[in-house]
């Protein structure tokens, strides 16, 4: 394949050769008046087609100078100009034929050169077009890569921002949780101070034991003792639910007992009074659609020497003696709310023997899930309490603790309270 530079040089040589040949013909055919003067159009056309405007103008100037020189030679009758004379018409026609052939050859040659140049030009255009398309495709791919990279960077930045936001939220949640836990721990301490301690219980009972385990930091279970002259008041309650809401209700009820100036004549009257106070303080009404039935399962005991009088609002109470365990009856309604509120609280009286043990408890211990998948149940709990007879309070607590440690699931279902005592 001929290089573009060599091809261009070849074309220049062809044009120069044509100009030289045409000039020679013009000199021998009469100078500027020679018919071959028009042959100069062919190299001029070729120059403008192949070499560009600058080179073509140079060739045009050259041809113009040659024609001008021939004209000057004609005007001065220069001896350089030759006029060919013919003896017959045949040579003249031969010359005309040769001129025609020459012109035709020049036109055909110019057209072929033009077609060749056009084909080359189209090939170059095609190659350039393909290069442009290739460059565009490469640019498009680079653009897509940049977009993908940018999107990936944006995703990384977004993920980092989200991670930082999540870390801040986790830190905030952790801080709030710690604050809540601190508040609950403080509330638990306050609640513990409201419950009677060991020295307080020693003033009322010869033997006693309290198994007290809140499900959460605070509990809805509570127990209370107080002295009103010759009568001692003993209370055990289990407020609806557990945790904060139940603990608040337990504080309301304990505050009521703390503020009692004297005891009503019967324990049932005390439960009825408490029921009315809860209805008022908790804004409970007969229209159950707009009120809650929050309340408490409660047992109230009036204790004088060896005689006990009690009333129970769905409370749990056992009597343990040499005959075994006896389940003491209770009224099937709670204090607070309007479920079965038309049912009157019942009074019961019993006499205690010296070694009799009273067991007040909430449903947390019997309902606790065991490691084998079942629950403790009331029967098993009663059998545990049988062992309390003629033993000390520390033994009662040890029995309850050992069974819990050996059999309870770690997860606790409810608040647990078991309050045992005897008055010897």
UniProtKB/TrEMBL annotation:
Annotated transmembrane regions: 12-41, 47-73
Record keywords, A-Z: Coiled coil, Hydrolase, Membrane, Transmembrane, Transmembrane helix
Coiled coil stretches, renumbered: 122-181
Matching Gene3D superfamilies: PPM-type phosphatase domain
Highest taxon of source: Bacteria
GO molecular function: phosphatase activity
InterPro entries: Bact_Sigma-Reg, PPM-type-like_dom_sf, PPM-type_phosphatase-like_dom
Listed name of the protein: SpoIIE family protein phosphatase
């Amino acid at each position: 394949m001929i290089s573009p530079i060599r091809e261009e040089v070849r074309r220049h040589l062809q044009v120069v050769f044509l100009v030289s040949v045409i000039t020679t013909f013009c000199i021998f055919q009469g100078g500027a008046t020679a018919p071959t003067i028009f042959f100069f159009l062919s190299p001029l056309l070729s120059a403008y087609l192949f070499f560009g405007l600058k080179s073509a103008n140079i060739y045009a100037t050259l041809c113009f100078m040659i024609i001008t020189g021939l004209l000057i030679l004609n005007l001065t009758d220069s001896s350089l100009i030759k006029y060919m004379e013919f003896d017959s018409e045949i040579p003249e026609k031969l010359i005309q034929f040769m001129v025609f052939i020459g012109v035709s050859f020049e036109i055909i040659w110019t057209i072929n050169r033009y077609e060749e140049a056009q084909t080359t030009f189209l090939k170059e255009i095609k190659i350039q077009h393909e290069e442009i398309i290739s460059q565009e495709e490469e640019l498009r791919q680079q653009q897509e890569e940049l977009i993908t990279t940018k999107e990936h960077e944006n995703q990384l930045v977004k993920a980092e921002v989200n991670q930082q936001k999540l870390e801040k939220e986790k830190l905030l949640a952790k801080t709030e949780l710690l604050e809540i836990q601190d508040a609950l721990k403080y509330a638990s301490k306050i609640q513990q101070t409201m419950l009677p301690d060991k020295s307080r219980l020693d003033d009322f009972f010869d033997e006693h034991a309290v198994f007290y385990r809140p499900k959460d930091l605070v509990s809805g279970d509570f127990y209370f003792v107080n002295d009103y002259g010759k009568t001692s008041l003993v209370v055990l309650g289990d407020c609806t639910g557990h945790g904060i809401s139940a603990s608040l209700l337990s504080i309301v009820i304990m505050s009521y007992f703390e503020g009692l100036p004297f005891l009503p004549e019967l324990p049932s009257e005390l439960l009825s009074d408490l029921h009315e106070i809860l209805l008022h303080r908790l804004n409970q009404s007969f229209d159950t659609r707009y009120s809650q039935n929050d309340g408490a399962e409660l047992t109230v005991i009036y204790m004088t020497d060896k005689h006990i009088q009690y009333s129970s609002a769905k409370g749990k109470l056992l009597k343990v003696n040499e005959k075994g365990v006896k389940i003491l009856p209770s009224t099937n309604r709670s204090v607070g709310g309007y479920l079965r509120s038309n049912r009157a609280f019942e009074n019961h009286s019993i006499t205690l023997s010296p070694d009799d043990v009273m067991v007040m408890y909430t449903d947390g211990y019997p309902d606790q899930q065991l490691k084998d998948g079942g629950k403790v149940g009331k029967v098993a709990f009663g059998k545990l309490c049988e062992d309390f007879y003629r033993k000390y309070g520390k033994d009662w607590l040890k029995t309850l603790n050992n069974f819990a440690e050996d059999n309870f699931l770690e997860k606790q279902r409810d608040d647990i309270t078991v309050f045992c005592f005897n008055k010897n």
